[in-house]
Design a protein that fits this description.
mainly beta, five-stranded antiparallel sheet, 2 helices, about 5% helix, globular
């Protein structure tokens, strides 16, 4: 019963919005999008960060206090420059050494909201003037927590930056994220608080997929070990995203947390 109630709570959750802008639709996902995924001699990389329904078309800037870079040796560094616009954030980083870099929003705490249990269904309560329905039998508070990542490799791939956990809801690559090839696929594991998430839904979108007929969008579920193995019939840039709701950690300001984690990657020929 508790699992069912958690699932119902999760289904009612809208996702994050920029601090001073209106709430984003539920389909919006934060992403990190680089101008290159693999380079042999490049000395820097430029990243876009935004919320969007259509990857990678920026709509709402991702405002985070935890933007950072994980260097190939696993150490943390800051972006060289960070410029905020209304619809996106542009970040730049040097690529001083060979290996795989991880560029991340870090853990971003989003807006808080309420949800009311009405006739057995959890309904979100949006807006400062919104009122709790009179027939609500329970009201809880919720807050979003998001992480968006992308990996860029200079020279040969390395694993230190890939294996470092960021946040509680993890997309843990088994296939190196800089070595995803058409015909070979991409294997990864979904973890929450270090434990595998079985039957967890993952959404997959492709750049330009909205122009395809039918529109390219897939939903798959992890197996009993939390593992997902994706296959691809078209090369390109992809975004995967997963969401999970759980009781908020002890000491949190809300009853519940709604976690969203995304990963941008390239499928090469």
């Amino acid at each position: 019963m508790r699992d069912l109630m958690t699932f119902l709570k999760f289904c009612a959750v809208g996702i994050v919005c920029a601090a001073t802008l209106c709430a984003a639709a539920q389909a919006h996902t934060s992403f990190m999008y680089p101008n290159t995924f693999i380079t042999t001699e490049g000395s820097q990389v430029t990243i876009q960060a935004s919320f969007s329904e259509d990857p990678f078309v920026p709509e709402i800037a991702v405002l985070s206090d935890d933007y950072h870079v994980i260097l190939p040796d696993g150490s943390r560094d800051d972006f060289k420059t960070l410029t905020k616009f209304r619809q996106l954030v542009v970040l730049e980083s040097d690529l001083d050494t060979e290996g795989t870099y991880r560029f991340t929003t870090g853990v971003r705490m989003g807006r808080k909201s309420q949800k009311a249990l009405v006739d057995g269904e959890w309904k979100p309560i949006f807006g400062p003037d919104a009122e709790v329905p009179e027939n609500a039998t329970e009201v809880i508070t919720s807050q979003t927590e998001t992480v968006a990542d992308v990996y860029v490799t200079k020279g040969a791939s390395t694993w230190d930056a890939v294996e470092l956990p960021i946040g509680q809801l993890l997309i843990k690559p088994v296939t190196h994220p800089s070595e995803i090839y058409l015909g070979e696929g991409f294997e990864f594991q979904l973890l929450f608080d270090g434990e595998p998430l079985a039957g967890q839904s993952v959404e997959i979108k492709r750049q330009g997929g909205a122009y395809e007929s039918p529109k390219y969008e897939r939903h798959v579920e992890s197996d009993a070990s939390g593992t997902v193995t994706l296959s691809f019939d078209t090369p390109g840039k992809y975004l995967i995203m997963t969401r999970h709701a759980a009781d908020a950690p002890a000491g949190a300001e809300t009853d519940e947390r709604s976690y969203t984690t995304s990963l941008t990657f390239e499928v090469a020929r």
